[in-house]
Design a protein that fits this description.
two-stranded antiparallel sheet, alpha/beta, 325 residues, globular, six-stranded parallel beta sheet, 11 helices
């Protein structure tokens, strides 16, 4: 199909669908209060994680914010270790210390996350500086929400990355809300985030964050630029989250956003529109989709069983990785 191999197109679909099914199962079980961690679901935002990570290698480093599940899974993070972390088991990917907002898997370049708005941005910038100083073939990517564009550290990092021509990507997922505050109450209506970023002297683009192939092409171009010494790129991807800012379910009924607004975005669900594209190209049908869904659910249930049967942390473990007394 076009310049893409069918296997690649189907891999993107499976990766997005996998994130969606895993998230829905987490949401379904969250009320049982066995997952001892706050959660921030990415339902509706799967295309950005999958499209961007498809352009990266395991050696490339990805940093993220509090909405971590999609980034972690798309980068190749271990599902069993992720769920064990959410159940606060000692074999969790952060040793039960981090929970959902602090996922990490160094084997695949999931370098770490920060629950602080903008907190991961200077760390990712430092990692990009290290890669340049070492002469390493490694790109640093940081995912941020549009609210991070209101933080001073973001401006400082954009300026520094452009000044030093660092091999990195600032990937802004603009879902128009910070917690329950809409973009219109936080930023001037004339402000365009990607154009603002460009004023720091780096390449900056706007993409449709619901279109996984558009995201992939933007990320691929940014990675190429970084590897060839062309410096950093800022990508703004506009999209919409269908669930609450935190926790399970949709909290639109609280009044912070119009339910009709959310419903208006549903036809642009990244998985729905991409499925229609693949079906139109004759690459998938309902039977094939159901088979993929069963395989993913089997994987999810096995990982849940693994997590719930895993050992709890013990007191002596408190002193592991502690370097001061």
């Amino acid at each position: 199909v076009g310049n893409y191999r069918p296997e690649f197109l189907l891999r993107l679909y499976r990766s997005m669908l996998r994130i969606r099914i895993i998230e829905e199962e987490i949401e379904k079980r969250y009320h049982e209060d066995q997952m001892k961690t706050p959660i921030h679901l990415v339902i509706g935002q799967e295309a950005t994680s999958v499209g961007c990570c498809a352009a990266l290698t395991d050696a490339d480093l990805l940093y993220s914010s509090h909405r971590t599940h999609g980034n972690y899974l798309a980068k190749g993070g271990d599902l069993k270790a992720m769920l064990s972390e959410m159940f606060c088991r000692e074999n969790g990917c952060a040793g039960s210390r981090g929970g959902s907002m602090h996922l990490i898997d160094k084997k695949v370049g999931m370098a770490g996350t920060s629950a602080i708005v903008g907190g991961a941005i200077p760390i990712a910038t430092g990692a990009a500086l290290a890669a340049k100083m070492q002469g390493a073939d490694r790109v640093s990517v940081v995912f941020l929400g549009e609210a991070a564009a209101e933080e001073g550290v973001t401006s400082e990092s954009l300026n520094f990355a452009a000044l030093k021509q660092l091999p990195m990507i600032f990937f802004c997922e603009n879902n128009f809300y910070s917690v329950q505050s809409p973009l219109s109450t936080r930023q001037h209506p004339g402000r365009s985030i990607w154009k603002w970023a460009a004023t720091y002297g780096l390449a900056s683009v706007l993409v449709d964050g619901t279109n996984v192939l558009a995201v992939f092409e933007a990320a691929k171009a940014a990675v190429k630029r970084a590897r060839e010494g062309g410096g950093p790129t800022f990508i703004e991807a506009r999209l919409y989250r269908f669930r609450a800012h935190g926790g399970a379910g949709d909290d639109s009924k609280t009044g912070y956003r119009d339910i009709a607004e959310r419903e208006a975005w549903e036809p642009y669900c990244p998985i729905r529109t991409y499925h229609e594209f693949l079906a139109g190209a004759g690459l998938i049908d309902d039977k094939a989709r159901k088979q993929v869904e069963r395989e993913i659910m089997d994987e999810m249930l096995a990982a849940l069983d693994h997590a719930m049967k895993s050992p709890n942390p013990v007191e002596t473990d408190l002193y592991r990785n502690v370097y001061a007394s």
